[in-house]
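FORM 7B: Structural annotation worksheet

SECTION A. Query
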Amino acid sequence: MAKSSAKEVDPGDSEHREIGEGLLQGNMGPSSATAHLYRGEIHRMKFWRERLDRTTNWAVLIISAILTWAFSRPGVPHYILLIGGAALTVFLVIEARRYRGYDMWRSRVRKLQENVFAYGLDPSAGMPDPNWRQKLSEDYRNPMIKVGMREAVAHRLRRIYLPLFSVVLVAWVVRITAFSTENWLVSASIGTVPGAVVVAAVGLLFTAAAVTALRPRDWRAKGELRAEDLRKSWLTRSGQRKIALADIESCPHRYRVQIRGLGGSGL
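SECTION B. Predicted structure
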């Protein structure tokens, strides 16, 4: 029989959907191709996750050392803290690039979790993406970075770097005000650069970082746990609990009868 070409094969056909068959059955053996594929993607994702953490650890360590040095004695110039902010910016760019690589493997893991494991555990919930096989196949044939640089920078700013920039900014303001006998605009000067120019530049840079991190956007990286997602989830669960309690309080007799029928002692 002639072998079918790639164009003649329909991945949605039942004939070509045996890859997930028996994946979550009790007789599944360790040679399952999907299980090994999933394990390999988890390992890649973990490796890139560790690279992200390593960059963050170096950034925190260097900023801690600079803060300690800046306040160790009065003669240390205040622009040491600005140099620390510049070092943070370099680490932010490096980490944003690493996050884009990490998201490649994370997106594959999430696709397998949502469409294979979650569907196998509870088919009644439906399949989130019926075309996940074609998309995953195309991703293996032509790997592409799915997250833009701006989104990656905004994500890392939200997670760690905006708080670090805030600490450096507060420390710098304290250094040029509380630790100087001159006017703060005069003490903020660097060489021949006036203090007003330095303050304006620092303020503009911090404002740009805050706007980049906090402005609403459509995130292309799906499946990440973000503060707004956790807040919505908490509000949804809280609302459901309030509705359930209000229902019980409005009809207490009905629930007493149901609990007694189950062998309870009533409310």
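SECTION C. Observations
The CA atoms of residues 42 and 266 lie 48 Å apart. The chain has two domains: 32-216, 226-267.

SECTION D. Sign-off
Analyst initials: ____
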